[in-house]
Fold this sequence. Notes:
Elements (H helix, E strand, L loop, with lengths): L1 H43 L9 H13 L8 H11 L3 H14 L1
Amino acid sequence: MNIDLIFYLVLAVIFLLSVTGFYFINRTKRENQLLLKRNISLLREEKIITAVEPNRTKKRRKLLRRIKSGNELNDQQVLSEAQKNKLSAGEILLANKINSFSN
């Protein structure tokens, strides 16, 4: 009889832990969905909130000065510049476009 009681107690604890786990998983999924919907609505209203990182801002400004306008960068140069500066390749291409339009 003692073994049956321990067995049912362990089953009850496992059941309660699984129910609480599912509750917390669903709650975080719901919060993520609400955050995603909020971000989409901000995008539609063009009220995008971005975090400004001072270190990356300095790198971006230096990058604008260093990239020569009118110089078409091939894929290998873009990737090497991105890896050196720890920036995305799109930012390098954007800096090149900005330089070409500003000159």
